[in-house]
């Protein structure tokens, strides 16, 4: 009997009085003890599947038709009481945000005990023993001690291990893991994935693994279903789908992802973005057609049927035969700019914070940045990589002057930015600009785009006329690849990728010599990320500027930057040319970062996952 | 901003409230023309007359007369003038002090924030009614004294609530971005922070107007208000209290006037907050 079977599942969303399918005719079979990967970008509808199983659809969404059979029983037609009895017992969930999924005011032990008591596990003593056993199985050291601790005392990775232990403690037959590693540091990805795979093998559980990462899905899953705009566009054995993708979207997605190990190549750039539910309403034919390089007249006429390209490998595309001909344009390749003379020099920069220190507590001195020295040359893209908490963002804030360093020097064109008297004047003159991480927070929701991108022109005592500003807006919008009619929009009317372009345009308004970019592509989907990476490379060629690119994604770093600085615990532990450092990493942390990226080829072994599983 | 304004003017709450406030303000401005009698004129032959619609009513005094034979309608209309003046100037005054301190406190943080925070704490530890009574005793009676007393008591309300909003707004990266683009602190506060706190500010002003009307009535009720010669709703209530059994209308009419005015201001504040906030409006809630 199948663990889970979806038959023509349709989830509808009410939009402007009409019902638009957010999931269209989704079917899949999940055998017991297997892992099914649901892969797609945000908005593809992949999380909706997990929510449909739990019947926790957002307001306005409802299951219109189809069935979801859990071991032969239809979850959608089951009495609410019977379904509740299954959830948390036979069907368990591993959430996306571990830190917020545990109750902050109760100990781990109390939360574990409550869950086990609900499962009807004997006395308090036996429940405690079981909790310790499960936490130990989740490779948490000193499990007994852990039971008395509160969630805030644990790291994100430990919280996720606790949640995995909780999920598997009921010996579930089905586990739904919704992006279980997305909120964690990259170095935590392989051990957490290995743990899920290990627990899944031990308990013989079927797993639905929801992810946006094709390479990850190939490593972990038995079957994958690639989703686009609510439709399963391709499904089949994980390795087959990833090694010989039949749908143009799968192929494009693969080509849009920069590689960590293969030769540096151009990224494939899909135009636009996935249609929103509102746009879907007016879209006929294949929903990928507007972005598809193979789209023909027939594609726009009707929805493509499911075609079998091999046994068990289905694709919803009438031009699947031509998919393998898709290749990135050579013009998109990133030409490493010739580095000029040194522009920015940072010498033994330090930042200490004093925390606590009140009437009854002595102040504690915490070093966010112990010491950092590096330099950036004109036109050079330098990457700063490291885990969260390693001090990357603190360095960025000190460079732009949002934080004052405790010690050390920041020399821009030979002038010290940390000298208080010179600070603002020099910075304005030499233009050091920052692109913020979260475009949602970085754009004033009350200003229109034209006013945002030319904000520098109203700063200080400068008074530019509105006509001058509109003219500059048109130039800047053209630079970042947006049409002029964006000038009158509000940030709330833009998509994430468009907001990030506006964010970049604003920083470029004064033609800075150096940009500080703090994780500017990390929150974006792969296809949007590829668009922005190519945009940055083109802008460097056209305008000429240097950049300190802060990121945790080594594939992106390798694609865009020529030099890399690795930070760990407030210090720069390794530095050098990207190719050299990545080929022969010296520091243990660099090696950990590198091994946390899954290989490009689905057949290739991923040692991190294997070692963790042993 | 124009679209936000036109959106506000389509909101039924705002329209109803503005209609009510317009009526009250019209009475206040043109009191001298509308009122059938001088509010101070006594007719000792016709004291405690019931309203015109009740038994024994006289059309000459549409809402009857009080214990000194003064026209209740005229006193209500002139009382609106007192109430509106106090509402307008007291709330503006409290808003100016509270807003400035809140923005300085929330934006700069640190020692400045601590100092202003403790000042507010100390200020708020006095019971507001007692504090305003003490102030009135010190300042003496009169319209401007009432306004001053309310401003000095109620600025903390603005300061407290706005400071937390300023703190939230200041955390946004766009405020840091404005500094990086060369904005001075003053420019950043006025152009980036203030527009974001304005919806809350407007709500607070209209709520404060309602509170000012009530406080003015309280002060007039106990005789420490605008003074005996100026008609005020609180004073009318105090006067009517002694004759509540002979003529309940004298008590009910000024209470109803206060009720209408306070409701109108609260309704306006709520309606404006819902429509002026770009975030609420653009994301469709």
What report would you give on this structure?
Chain A is of the alpha/beta class and 614 residues long. Chain A is built from 24 helices and 22 strands. The longest helix of chain A is centred in the last third of the chain and has 18 residues, at 526-543. Chain A is globular and about 75 Å long. Chain B is mainly alpha-helical. Chain B has one domain (2-27, 79-282): MetI-like (MetI-like fold, Orthogonal Bundle), CATH 1.10.3720. Helix content of chain B is 74%, strand content 0%. Chain B contains 12 helices and no strands. Chain B has helices at 2-8, 12-29, 31-34, 72-108, 110-124, 128-139, 143-171, 173-180, 185-221, 233-241, 248-276, 278-282. The interface between A and B is medium-sized, with 28 and 21 residues.
Number of helices of chain B: 12
Q: In order across it, which strands form the biggest sheet of chain A? A: 6-7-8-3-9-10-12-11
- Shape, principal axes of CA atoms of chain A: globular
CATH class of chain B: Mainly Alpha
* CATH architecture classification of the largest domain in chain A: 3-Layer(aba) Sandwich
């Amino acid at each position: 009997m199948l663990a889970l079977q979806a038959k023509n599942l349709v989830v509808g969303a009410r939009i402007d009085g009409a019902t638009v399918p957010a999931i269209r005719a989704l079917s899949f079979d999940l055998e017991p003890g297997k892992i099914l990967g649901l892969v797609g970008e945000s908005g593809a509808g992949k999380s909706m599947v997990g929510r449909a199983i739990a019947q926790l659809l957002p307001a306005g969404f409802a299951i219109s038709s189809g069935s979801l059979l859990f071991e032969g029983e239809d979850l959608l037609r089951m009495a609410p009481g019977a379904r509740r009895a299954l959830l948390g017992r036979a069907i368990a969930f591993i959430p996306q945000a571990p830190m917020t999924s545990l109750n902050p005011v109760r100990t781990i032990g109390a939360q574990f005990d409550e869950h086990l008591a609900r499962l009807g596990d004997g006395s308090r003593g036996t429940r405690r023993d079981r909790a310790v056993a499960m936490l130990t199985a989740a490779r948490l050291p000193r499990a007994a001690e852990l039971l008395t601790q509160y969630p805030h005392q644990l790291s994100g990775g430990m919280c996720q291990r606790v949640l995995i232990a909780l999920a598997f403690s009921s010996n579930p037959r089905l586990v739904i893991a919704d992006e279980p590693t997305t909120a964690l540091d990259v170095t935590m990805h392989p051990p957490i994935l290995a743990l899920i795979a290990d627990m899944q093998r031990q308990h013989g559980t079927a797993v639905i693994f929801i992810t946006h990462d094709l390479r990850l899905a190939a490593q972990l899953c038995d079957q994958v279903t690639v989703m686009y705009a609510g439709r399963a566009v391709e499904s089949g054995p994980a390795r087959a789908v990833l090694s010989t993708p039949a749908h143009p979207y799968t192929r494009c997605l693969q080509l849009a992802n920069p590689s960590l190990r293969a030769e540096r190549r151009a990224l494939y750039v899909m135009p636009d973005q996935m249609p929103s539910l509102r746009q879907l309403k007016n879209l006929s034919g294949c929903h990928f057609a507007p972005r598809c390089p193979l789209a023909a007249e027939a594609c726009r006429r009707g929805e493509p049927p499911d075609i079998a390209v091999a046994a068990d490998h289905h694709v919803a595309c009438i031009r699947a035969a031509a998919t393998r001909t898709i290749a990135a344009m050579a013009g998109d390749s990133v030409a490493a700019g010739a580095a000029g003379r040194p522009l920015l020099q940072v010498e033994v920069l330090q930042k200490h914070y004093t925390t606590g220190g009140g009437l009854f507590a002595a102040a504690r001195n915490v070093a966010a940045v112990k010491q950092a020295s590096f330099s950036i040359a004109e036109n050079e893209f330098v990457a700063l990589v490291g885990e969260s908490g390693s001090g990357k963002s603190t360095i960025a804030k000190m460079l732009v002057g949002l934080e004052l360093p405790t010690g050390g020097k920041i020399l821009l064109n030979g002038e010290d930015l940390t000298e208080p008297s010179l600070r603002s004047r020099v910075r304005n003159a030499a233009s050091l600009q920052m692109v913020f991480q979260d475009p949602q927070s970085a754009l004033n929701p009350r200003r229109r785009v034209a006013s945002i991108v030319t904000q520098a022109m109203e700063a200080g005592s400068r008074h530019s006329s509105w006509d001058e500003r509109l003219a500059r807006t048109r130039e800047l919008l053209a630079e970042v690849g947006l049409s002029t009619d964006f000038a009158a929009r509000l940030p709330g009317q833009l998509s994430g990728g468009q907001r990030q372009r506006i964010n970049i345009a604003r920083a470029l308004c004064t033609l800075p010599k150096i940009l500080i970019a703090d994780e500017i592509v990390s929150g974006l989907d792969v296809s949007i990320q590829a668009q922005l990476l190519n945009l940055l490379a083109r802008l460097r060629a056209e305008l000429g500027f240097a950049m300190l690119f802060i990121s945790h994604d080594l594939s992106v770093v390798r694609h865009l930057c020529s030099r890399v600085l690795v930070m760990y615990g407030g210090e720069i532990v390794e530095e050098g040319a990207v190719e050299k450092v990545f080929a022969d990493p010296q520091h243990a942390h660099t090696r950990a970062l590198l091994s946390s990226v899954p290989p490009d080829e689905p057949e290739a072994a991923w040692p991190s996952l294997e070692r963790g599983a042993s | 901003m124009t679209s936000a304004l036109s959106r506000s003017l389509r909101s039924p709450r705002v329209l109803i409230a503005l209609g009510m406030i317009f009526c009250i303000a019209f009475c206040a401005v043109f009191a001298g023309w509308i009122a059938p009698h001088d509010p101070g004129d006594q007719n000792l032959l016709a004291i405690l007359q019931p309203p015109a619609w009740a038994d024994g009513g006289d059309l000459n005094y549409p809402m009857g007369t009080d214990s000194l034979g003064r026209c209740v309608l005229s006193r209500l209309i002139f009382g609106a003038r007192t109430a509106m003046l106090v509402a307008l100037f007291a709330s503006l005054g409290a808003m100016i002090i509270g807003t400035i301190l809140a923005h300085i406190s929330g934006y700069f943080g640190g020692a400045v924030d601590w100092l202003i925070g403790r000042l507010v704490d100390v200020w708020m530890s006095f019971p507001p009614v007692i504090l305003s009574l003490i102030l009135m005793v010190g300042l003496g009676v009169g319209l401007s004294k009432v306004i001053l007393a309310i401003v000095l008591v109620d600025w903390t309300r603005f300061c407290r609530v706005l400071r937390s909003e300023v703190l939230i707004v200041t955390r946004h990266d766009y405020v840091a971005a404005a500094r990086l683009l060369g904005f001075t602190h003053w420019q950043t506060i006025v152009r980036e922070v203030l527009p974001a706190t304005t919806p809350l500010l407007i709500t607070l002003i209209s709520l404060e107007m309602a509170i000012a009307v009530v406080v003015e009535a309280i002060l007039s009720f106990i005789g420490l208000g605008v003074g005996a010669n100026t008609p005020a709703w609180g004073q009318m209530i105090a006067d009517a209290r002694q004759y509540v059994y002979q003529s309940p209308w004298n008590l009910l009419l000024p209470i109803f006037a206060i009720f209408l005015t306070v409701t109108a201001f609260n309704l306006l504040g709520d309606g404006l907050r819902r429509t002026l906030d770009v975030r609420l409006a653009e994301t469709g809630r």
